[in-house]
Amino acid sequence: MVIPIIGLSILLVLTSTSPFSLKGGCIIVDSTRRGKRFPDSMSKTIPIWTCVLNRSIFNYLNTFSNADASLVKQDSNTGCNSHDWDCSLHLPLWVSETEKAAIEDRLEGWTKDLETSGADIAILASCLKKPLRPLWISQKTVIWINEVPDYDSWDFTPIILVSASSTSGVTQHRTTSEFSWNYIPGAGDDEESWARGLSPNLFWNHAYDLISTGPDVCNQKVADIVEKDRVYRARRGQDAPQITIKPSISESSPCLDPLLCSDLSNITISSSDEERGIFWLGSTNLALGSSQIAAECSSNVDCVLNCDQWPISVHHQEAEAYLHLPIVSSKMDRFSLFNNLSSAVNFAKSNLTKGRTLLICCHDGEDISVCVCLAILISLFNDEGLFLASFLCGLLG
């Protein structure tokens, strides 16, 4: 049975409620991504549906208390009567009071949705001796065993939410098998992090070939397929520019806000050496490319800003001509890009003021480097795409 809550769907299998209620609770183990000790499913979603279930059971007990007095008698089969049944929302301390209040405003509606969905609340009421309540445990939780109260003294059925993964990021795991593997928490549905550019159509067109290849050369096989497809599309003019500054404004669609419609027609995307994959942004002295291209063609530019996670070897002798900012994907560290933007802009400002050309690169030249380049354009260029040289000279002087 699927119950919609906060734009998501949780699978409520009522028959599975009986085992953990009879055993006195359950433990739910999950992984979390770096920088976030508990995922939202543990911080909000599970606490919400435990509260909704508690409220539905409470309403059921009150409705049938006059018809069947046994439902409200506290005996060996029932731990709490309806008057002692906890219906409050229990959230961890890191959820703000504002967010908690917003959730509480919607609890009554979700409870009614559950009650009208056809769920057998009577089964829940007969199985659960005590109301549900979530508890949170992570690797940083300290529990003194001798201070844990006896379960019989608890007035709730615990739903213990365990965040088992370390928040130190991606680690290489060695196994007893022939192959090692990287575990990226929460990346099961993020195909861009593991598909290596292989689209569904490409996969099915080469499915048998890929499967028969085996794990030893699978990644190389995928890379060959993706590269051949890219070359095939590029030769037929199907490869669109990597970035687009601004579409032309139609006369029939006038802009309502002049600040949003500043003329950037002076900036164009071009590639004087397209087979090498360096894309120049008009006369800005800025270029984009992959880190591999930057390593091969660094002699064609005055300085390089490397935003890849790994350093590269460049031909420049001056230290100020190369800066490595190891920016990782937002899936690994949501603040990595933000925390490095200031250094990137300062490096660009220092070199562009001297009239140097700057190549900004990342792993594929299409993601992080584009974001950094956009930040530089916004910070150091005016609406016409002209470098604010005089203004910057005043600041630097």
Automatic annotation (TrEMBL):
Rit1 N-terminal domain residues: 23-227
Any Pfam family hit: Init_tRNA_PT
Rit1 DUSP-like domain location: 322-387
Ranges in a coiled coil: none
Molecular-function GO term, any one: tRNA adenosine(64)-2'-O-ribosylphosphate transferase activity
Lineage: Eukaryota, Viridiplantae, Streptophyta, Embryophyta, Tracheophyta
Name of protein: Rit1 N-terminal domain-containing protein
GO biological-process terms attached to the record: charged-tRNA amino acid modification
InterPro entries: Prot-tyrosine_phosphatase-like, Rit1, Rit1_DUSP-like, Rit1_N
Gene3D superfamilies: Protein tyrosine phosphatase superfamily
Keyword annotations of the record: Signal
Signal sequence segment: 1-17
GO CC annotations on file: cytoplasm
Organism field: Gossypium mustelinum (Cotton)
